[in-house]
Design goal:
The strands form four sheets. Strands 1, 2, 3, 4, 5, 6 and 7 form a seven-stranded antiparallel beta sheet that branches. The chain has a seven-stranded mixed beta sheet with strand order 11-10-9-12-8-13-14, sandwiched between helices. Strands 15, 16, 20, 21, 22, 23 and 24 form a seven-stranded mixed beta sheet that branches. Helices cover 23% and strands 35% of the residues. The model has no long low-confidence stretch (mean pLDDT 94). It is built from eight helices and 24 strands. Helix 3 runs parallel beside helix 4.
């Protein structure tokens, strides 16, 4: 359908939808829209199109999509004020970094996009690091991704990650150290690649003492020049009040921000998985050809004959597969093999090593990251099975070249990117 919108109004479009500017001038968060250029609004996302001169749009709405017109800009005045202040400071200090905090659906990504577009207008080399594991736009979910922007953007999801750090989970609570390490490594890499203005987006975990301590650790390790806290009321004060030595700006969450329930956030993650799995095919690799991370598999050797006799005698079965390191015995049982807890405890005591028990096929569906020989992120895949006796691994992935390292996570997916749950089968 065609829709005419007067100057001074903002068109809010909730996806799934697409639109095209046929005439007039409009922009999204400071990024001008080209006439006759189609823009896609993802399901679960809202795009604010600010009309500068009367514009005619061609608008296509998907199922449950909608739109509305509101007067004025949906970008809060405090955002513009803080952005102007930040950009005025960079003339005396480069590189310059900004960390953005806020709870879930507070407008963090929207603010990062607005800030990035304004910085690009100042001819700065802008990098964005996305530290929100669950709602990542730069890189697939369960990763920390970063990009260096070449031009103004409407949606960070449209930008390909220059590199990413794989975590393997979509929430930071159990992997705080890994997230901090990943953010720190990508910050250093972005600066080595010449970034003058660095924007660090964070996750929406802000409630409680543990979340506050985690966010303060992020500030201490990453040392941003300024922290921007986005809040509706006072939900960040217990965090922002503990920041010392770093300038803090507090801005409000836009009234036009669309709150999403857990299911909508899950849909957004699945769309992202699907994007990064597009064109995938099943490939087989000998484990000896690869470096495996996130698993004990491939770290040890086959037990000697006497050890195997001891294992079989205590368990009363011949295990599907065994591998032994200096302090751990990895034991893989067949699908139909049954062993009592008492037998496993006796074995652990007898060999004097920690026992890690896996059942054949339990690994199917685990999300993996694929890296090259230099540790650069190449993409994601799905673990489709391990032939323990042949020591071969099957991965569904679109990545075909340069595969050196496979990092195994804890999220389970199907080939369409649908989340099937969490499985810690390989957690070391």
């Amino acid at each position: 359908m065609k829709l005419e919108v007067d100057a001074g109004k903002t068109l809010l479009v909730d996806g799934p939808a697409s639109l095209m500017v046929l005439s007039g001038k409009a922009e999204v968060l400071g990024a001008p829209l080209k006439n006759e250029s189609r823009i896609v609004v993802r399901e679960g996302k809202r795009l604010p199109i600010e009309v500068k001169s009367k514009a005619l749009f061609e608008l296509s709405l998907g199922e449950n999509a909608k739109y509305e017109q509101v007067d004025g800009s949906t970008v809060p005045k405090t955002w513009q004020k803080v952005v102007d202040e930040i950009l005025s400071e960079i003339s005396s200090k480069r590189p310059y970094s900004v960390m953005v905090m806020g709870e879930v659906d507070s407008g963090k990504t929207t603010f990062c996009t607005f800030l990035a577009n304004k910085a690009l207008k100042e001819k700065l080399k802008v990098a964005v690091i996305d530290g929100d594991l669950g709602q990542s736009d730069v890189g697939p979910p369960s990763t920390i991704g970063y990009c260096i922007l070449k031009k103004p953007i409407k949606d960070l999801f449209d930008v390909n990650a220059k590199n990413a750090y794989f975590i393997g989970l979509t929430s930071p609570g159990r992997v705080m150290n890994e997230v901090i390490q990943g953010l720190s490594k990508l910050k250093d890499e972005a600066l080595r690649n010449g970034a003058e203005f660095l924007i660090i987006n964070t996750d929406g975990w802000v409630e409680g003492e543990e979340a506050a301590n985690y966010k303060l650790r992020l500030v201490n390790v990453l040392e941003p020049d300024v922290v921007v806290g986005i809040q509706q009321e006072y939900e960040l004060l217990h965090i922002l009040g503990g920041i010392g030595g770093t300038k803090v700006h507090i801005v409000e969450s836009p009234s036009a921000i669309r709150k999403r329930d857990r299911e909508k956030r899950k849909i957004l993650r699945e769309l992202s998985y699907k994007k990064y799995l597009k064109g995938g095919k099943v490939q087989s690799f000998l484990i000896s050809w690869l470096k495996l991370e996130g698993t004990l598999l491939g770290k040890g050797i086959f037990p000697h004959k006497e050890r195997m006799r001891e294992i079989e005698q205590i368990l009363g079965i011949h295990p599907w597969y065994c591998e032994e390191t200096s302090n751990t015995l990895l034991l893989v049982l067949g699908r139909s093999q049954r062993v009592s807890e008492e037998s496993l405890k006796r074995l652990e005591k007898s060999i004097g090593k920690r026992l890690k028990v896996i059942r054949e096929g339990e690994e199917n569906g685990l999300l993996v990251a694929i890296k090259d020989i230099n540790g650069m992120f190449l993409g994601i895949g799905i673990l489709e099975g391990i032939d323990y006796r042949r020591r071969a691994i099957k991965i569904y992935t679109p990545v075909v070249k340069g595969i050196h390292t496979i990092s195994i996570g804890q999220v389970k997916l199907d080939r369409e990117g649908k989340e099937l749950g969490i499985c810690a089968v390989f957690t070391e």
